[in-house]
Write a structure and sequence with these properties.
Blueprint lengths: L8 E5 L18 E6 L17 E7 L11 E2 L10 E2 L12 E12 L2 E5 L8 E7 L2 H4 L18 E3 L3 H12 L3 H9 L16 E5 L2 E9 L2 E9 L5
Parallel strand pairs: 9-12
Antiparallel strand pairs: 1-2, 1-8, 2-7, 3-6, 3-8, 4-5, 6-7, 10-11, 11-12
This protein binds S-adenosylmethionine.
Length: 234
């Protein structure tokens, strides 16, 4: 049996590539985006009542991780990328039907547009459905998950002297909490766990229209080196 689904909207996100996106929502509250609804859901009626809701569930497609052959086991980055576990025990992106789910903060509702924060979604992510978060049903007080029992440990993020004023200028231009976004995302240590970061090695990721580079002066410590307008963006 097959079902055809089609997106109700597309996320315009601060994250322009997969690298350095937090592994779950809420981990970077400064990660913002807009869910642009597609016809016929772009009319005010479809979102009427949502202004009473602080958070929504998004069901979406991992559109940049779709695969033809289903995997039974995956190697989640959280376990260091070298331990293989059953696909249904993880929230890995490579999964049957490529469906992801995230609870995100609903900052503001407009006809055709939902303003979101705390997202873990790539720019262009197709959203299949939106549901209000229902605290009495969705918040499970005695829940446990021994494989993912706490948020990732944060590492300190420092700035090269001239990088921070640049980031502040871009934050003003974009009207976005850019410094916080960079610090919150890098503090999660996006580097694959199996990689030993040599101090000479530069890492980079794109946030909004900016390329951000950093390095590890020593393992467990990040220094932001520069924040530059991405070359191929007008
Ligand atoms: N909260 C969701 C869930 O549990 O289904 C996503 C968890 S998944 C581990 C989070 C990662 O998915 C992010 O770090 C990012 O690299 C990746 N990601 C986000 N949006 C994506 C997309 N549209 N296509 C492929 N990968 C995506």
């Amino acid at each position: 049996m097959q079902h055809l689904v089609s997106p109700v909207g597309i996320v315009r996100s601060c994250f322009k590539e997969k690298f350095a996106i937090p592994r779950q929502p809420h981990l970077a509250p400064a990660a913002r985006g807009v869910l642009e609804l597609l016809p016929p859901f772009d009319q005010g009626e479809a979102v009427q009542g949502l202004e009473q809701v602080s958070h929504v569930w998004l069901l979406f497609l991992f559109h940049q991780a779709l695969e033809d052959k289903p995997r039974l086991k995956v190697r989640p980055p959280r376990l260091g990328g070298n331990q293989s576990v059953g696909v249904f025990s993880t929230r890995a992106t490579h999964r049957p039907n490529g469906i992801g789910q995230s609870v995100v903060r609903l900052e503001r509702v407009e006809p055709g547009r939902l303003h979101l924060s705390g997202i873990d979604l790539l720019d262009g992510t197709p959203v299949l459905d939106i549901k209000p978060y229902v605290p009495y049903a969705d918040c499970v007080n005695d829940a446990h998950n021994a494989m993912a029992d706490a948020a990732p440990r944060l590492i300190p993020v420092e700035w090269q002297a001239d990088a921070l004023p640049l980031a502040r200028q871009h934050a003003l231009r974009l009207n976005e909490p850019l410094v916080e976004l960079i610090e919150q995302c890098l503090a999660q240590d996006p580097r694959p766990a199996y990689q030993q970061p040599e101090p000479e090695r530069r890492y980079g990721a794109r946030f909004w229209d900016l390329d951000v580079h950093w390095h590890y002066p020593e393992p467990g410590r990040i220094r932001v080196l520069d924040v530059q307008k991405a070359a191929n963006i007008a």
